[in-house]
Amino acid sequence: MLTELTNGAPPSALQAALETQLSGADRAWLHEALAEAEAEAEAGAKSPEPVDRNRAQWSLPTWEIRFAEAGRHCHPARGTAQADPATPATPAAPDLADAARVLLLHAVRADLDTTTRLYSHGTAAERRAVLLALPHLSAVTTPAGSALPLVEDALRTNDTRLVAAAVGPYATEHLDQHAWRHAVLKCLFTGVPVDAIDGLSRRARADSELARMLRDYAAERTAAGRPVLDDLHRVLALTARPDTTARPDTTARVEITAAPTEES
Q: Residue 113, Cβ neighbours under 10 Å: how many?
């Protein structure tokens, strides 16, 4: 699926998948926009002079204009989403714009200053694209993990698409275990499917502290008469130390006992 490719797949694979979903006019727009971004990157690499931010803010580079307008130029071609909008494998227009913006950021080799500025001043859709692009930009957003403040900011919001974008490969690689556990709980709080969490099985395995946090959260919901989400049971099962001879049963239910109340 295109959304899976957006989160860290090679740009060539992402571009090929995107182009199969676009109309001829939108493909032409994409090619022109990427060419402009690549030209900007080459010009920046050749110029030793630092960019004057005060002057540049009044005249955005062409690629940034393309970045902002991607939502107006990336629509599913006839016969794709319009044929069956309920088909999960068919990306919606926002997913196509996400992919285009990720490709633009990769083509221009957006550094930490650029990604931070676009995230700080961007719309929710533009912020989401910056988060999705971070795995593609590790070589230029230095030092390693320096873009974590963007991930942490997204995890403080209640925008489910931002939260889902924040728990991708970049977070898996750079969030410490404490922060990662809270990211998992954030997904459960906001209803973001845990399938969105990159590296979930690996990082949850044998994590007794995560198991404790999940049990506490489940007990709170049970005591309040609220259902315990299937996703919580899935993650809780993953925290058990794995049997090296068999895969963990992530469909099993774990019995949750409500915390005792004063009346009991």
A: 11
* Interval 31-42 mean pLDDT: 92
Measured CA to CA in angstroms, residue 108 lies from 28, 33, 177, 189 at distances of 18, 10, 32, 36
Note the pLDDT of residue 200.
Answer: 95
Contact 200, 187 (CB under 8 A): no
Residue with tokens 């049970």: 222
The overall average pLDDT reported for the chain is 84
Q: What are phi and psi of 155, to 5 degrees?
A: -70, -15
How does pLDDT run across 106-151, given as a tens digit for each residue?
999 999 999 999 999 999 999 999 999 998 887 777 788 899 999 9
User: Positive or negative, the Cα torsion across 137, 134, 12, 122?
Assistant: negative
The sign one gets for the Cα dihedral 151, 154, 155, 161 is negative
pLDDT at position 9 is 73
Contacts of 94 (CB under 8 A, 6+ apart): 71, 125, 161
pTM: 0.81
